[in-house]
């Protein structure tokens, strides 16, 4: 059967939103992932209309129940741009972002030769490099972004720890918000006395603060 992908959003819409955020999932999970469910809820509590998107390979995984690798990032970027064109509410300020790979694709939109017309980008757990391959850096979208970018990162993230990232040249448009002892999913070690829900709420507050600052 020929698979045809959709350009729909899974929405967490507060009663009176002041901004919309198109939020993309990571490489290994679709738009129903527990992490995204929680983050969307926390952001909606801050008045942000969260509009989750689902890349075509994830749509097919959900439909068939079979694992599939992501399409090349250039195709994911094109899909994100088209969905944004079809779904954005023009009367509301608009931001794009995502978790891990989804955040990387969002930053690529901001670094394109003709960047998308949005107010900012938010990357939760940016994959600065593959795990245990710190020499394979993915800094170009951040360095070339023409739009303000917030990266919310756990200090222990295996895709880019605080010690790693503070040594990178990221460009003037990039801000960093650190979650103490958080890993790639913002989960801290038990001995830290912190909790994953607590760090995720902190991440949501940082994202909402960043979005408000771009509208001031």
Please explain how this structure is put together.
A seven-stranded mixed sheet has the order 1-3-2-4-5-6-7, with helices on both faces. The protein has 216 residues and is an alpha/beta fold. It has a single domain, classed as Rossmann fold, CATH 3.40.50. The protein has seven helices and seven strands, in the order ββαβααβαβαβαβα. Helix content is 34%, strand content 18%.
The gross shape turns out to be globular
| Main sheet: strands, sense, barrel | 7 strands, mixed
Helix content: 25-40%
What is the CATH H-level superfamily? Alpha/Beta hydrolase fold, catalytic domain
Number of helices: 7
Number of domains: 1
How do the helices and strands follow one another from N- to C-terminus? Answer: EEHEHHEHEHEHEH
- Contiguous low-pLDDT stretches (5 residues minimum) are none
Proportion of β residues? 15-25%
Q: Briefly note the CATH topology name.
A: Rossmann fold
CA-to-CA gap between the ends? 50 Å
Number of beta strands? 7
Sheet with most strands: strand arrangement? 1-3-2-4-5-6-7
Average pLDDT works out at 94
Please report the first level of CATH classification, the CATH class: Alpha Beta
Helix/strand-derived category reads: alpha/beta
Report Rg.
16 Å
| Proper CATH architecture | 3-Layer(aba) Sandwich
């Amino acid at each position: 059967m020929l698979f045809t992908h959709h350009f729909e959003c899974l929405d967490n819409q507060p009663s009176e939103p002041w901004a919309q955020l198109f939020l993309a999932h990571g490489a290994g999970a679709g738009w129903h992932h527990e992490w995204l469910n929680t983050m969307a809820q926390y952001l909606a509590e801050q008045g942000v209309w969260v509009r989750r998107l689902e890349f075509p390979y994830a749509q097919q995984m959900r439909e068939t129940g079979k694992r599939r690798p992501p399409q090349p990032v250039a195709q994911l970027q094109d899909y994100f741009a088209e969905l944004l064109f079809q779904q954005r509410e023009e009367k509301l300020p608009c931001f794009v972002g995502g978790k891990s790979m989804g955040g990387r694709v969002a930053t690529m939109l901001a670094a394109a030769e003709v960047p998308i017309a949005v107010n900012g980008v938010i990357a939760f757990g940016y994959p600065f490099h593959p795990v245990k391959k710190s020499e394979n850096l993915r800094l170009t979208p951040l360095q070339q972004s023409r739009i303000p970018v917030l990266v919310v990162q756990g200090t222990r993230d295996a895709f880019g720890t605080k010690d790693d990232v503070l040594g990178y040249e990221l460009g003037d448009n990039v801000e960093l918000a650190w979650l103490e002892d958080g890993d790639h999913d913002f989960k801290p070690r038990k001995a830290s006395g912190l909790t994953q829900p607590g760090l995720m709420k902190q991440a949501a507050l940082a994202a909402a603060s960043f979005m408000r600052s771009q509208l001031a």
